[in-house]
Design goal:
With about 300 residues, the chain is of the alpha/beta class. The protein is about 50% helix and about 20% strand. Helix 3 packs parallel to helix 4, helix 8 crosses helix 11 and helix 11 packs across helix 12.
Length: about 300
C-alpha cells in the first residue's frame, strides 16, 4: 500500500509516520526544512502516543511523478483547491483522497476535482505540533478519527475503502472508527473549533482557560447556538437534539481532554501566518447568511481574527 501525504506538517507527519511504521510505503510532500531534517535524521514522533523514530520515506517538496492508491490531504483549508489540483495526477484510477482537514467545504472541493466516488472525509480531533524540524509531538486526544464518504451508500466501493482505511489507521496506532455520516461529524468538529480556536487565538490562552471564565463561556455558548442553527438549516443529521445537549459533551468531556491545548489558529497568529478562520467561523457566518440566519458572534470573531491576520 502506497500513501502520499500532501501537506506533511504536524498532522500529516503523524499519519505518515505511523503508517510507515506499520509497513506502508509513504511519500511526504511538504516544506524543505522539515523534510530535510527527516531525510537526515528520520522522523521523531513523541507525546501521548509514545516515542517513535521512523525512517524510509520518499520525500518531496513539489508534487511527485508517481501513481498512488491513496492521498492524505492535510494542507490548510485555504490551500485545498490548489493542493488537490496539483496532486490529482498522482492518484490511481481506483484510488481515493482522504481529507484530514479542519473546517467546512474541503470534501466538496476535493470531490469537484477527483469526483465524489473517490473522496473520503475524516474527522480528526487530536492535537499535534512540530517541536523542531523533523520532530512532531502528539499533545492531546479528544476522540477517535472518523472516516467516511459524504454520501454513504451512494458508492458502496467507497464505503468499503473507508472501512479499510479505518482499520489501517487503527492498526497503525491512530484510534479510528468508520462513520456513515461524516458530514455530521465534520459539523460537530466545527462546533468545537469555532467555539475554542478564535477565542484562544485572540486571547493567547489554551482551551481549558476559556472554559474556566463565565464571560468566555458565554461567548462560546453563543458560537455553538449559532452554529447549531445553521447546521439544522442545512439539514445536517446531528446526534444532539439541542445545542445545550452538545454543550454538555463539550464542557464535560471534550474541553477537559484537551485542556492544555493551544490551537493551531493561535500558533498561526504567533508565527504571522494565515489562519483557517474562513473555513470555521467564517463558514458559519456565510452559510447563515444564505439561510437568513444571523450569526453575530461568529461574524465578530471572524472579523477580529481577520484584523489580526492583516496586522502580520
Amino acid at each position: 500500500m502506497h500513501v502520499l501525504v500532501a501537506g506533511a506538517g504536524a498532522l500529516g507527519s503523524v499519519f505518515g509516520g505511523l503508517l510507515r511504521r506499520a509497513g506502508c510505503a509513504v511519500t511526504l510532500l511538504g516544506r524543505s526544512a522539515h523534510l530535510d531534517a527527516i531525510g537526515r535524521d528520520g522522523l521523531r514522533i513523541s507525546g501521548i502516543w509514545g516515542e517513535h523514530h521512523v525512517r524510509g520515506f520518499e520525500l518531496c517538496t513539489t508534487p511527485p511523478r508517481i501513481v498512488t492508491e491513496t492521498i492524505l490531504l492535510t494542507v490548510k483549508s485555504y490551500d485545498t483547491r490548489a493542493a488537490i489540483e496539483s496532486v490529482a495526477p498522482c492518484l490511481a484510477p481506483d484510488g481515493v483522497v482522504i481529507s484530514l482537514q479542519n473546517g467546512l467545504g474541503n470534501v466538496e472541493t476535493i470531490e469537484a476535482v477527483v469526483s465524489p466516488a473517490r473522496t473520503l472525509g475524516a474527522r480528526v480531533i487530536f492535537g499535534v505540533e512540530v517541536t523542531q524540524p523533523g520532530c512532531v509531538r502528539v499533545t492531546v486526544y479528544a476522540d477517535r478519527v472518523l472516516v467516511g464518504a459524504r454520501r454513504s451508500g451512494v458508492h458502496p466501493a467507497l464505503d468499503e475503502r473507508a472501512r479499510q482505511w479505518t482499520a489501517r489507521f487503527d492498526a497503525a496506532g491512530i484510534p479510528s472508527a468508520y462513520s456513515d455520516d461524516i458530514e455530521a461529524a465534520l459539523w460537530a468538529k466545527v462546533f468545537y473549533n469555532a467555539a475554542l480556536n478564535p477565542l484562544g487565538a485572540l486571547l493567547g490562552v489554551g482551551y481549558g482557560a476559556l472554559a474556566e471564565h463565565a464571560d468566555t463561556r458565554a461567548i462560546m455558548d453563543a458560537v455553538i447556538d449559532e452554529a447549531f442553527a445553521v447546521a439544522r438549516a442545512e439539514a445536517i443529521r446531528l446526534q444532539w437534539s439541542s445545542a445545550a445537549e452538545y454543550r454538555a459533551l463539550f464542557y464535560d468531556r471534550l474541553v477537559p481532554s484537551t485542556f492544555d491545548h493551544r490551537s493551531s489558529m493561535l500558533q498561526d497568529l504567533e508565527r504571522g501566518r494565515r489562519t483557517e478562520i474562513e473555513a470555521i467561523n467564517g463558514a458559519i457566518w456565510r452559510r447563515g447568511n444564505a439561510h437568513s440566519i444571523v450569526t453575530p458572534v461568529n461574524e465578530t470573531l471572524t472579523r477580529l481574527v481577520r484584523y489580526r491576520e492583516q496586522r502580520r
